[in-house]
Amino acid sequence: MNAMVLAAGFGTRMKPLTDHLPKALLPIHGKPLIEMILNQLQSQGFDKIAVNAHYHAGKIKTF
Fold it and tell me: Where are the domains of the chain?
């Protein structure tokens, strides 16, 4: 199955936390939010996952 994670927003309502880090990489219980989302999708059988990124996209790509 295919999935798309929408992670392109600026996270303006979460400033100053998102000044230097996209909200997808903000830690929740010590792990980046996107890691938790990707793990959950994989555990549900999604094998092709695309991430739509814009704000600090390079940091998401590096992750």
Answer: 2-10+17-56
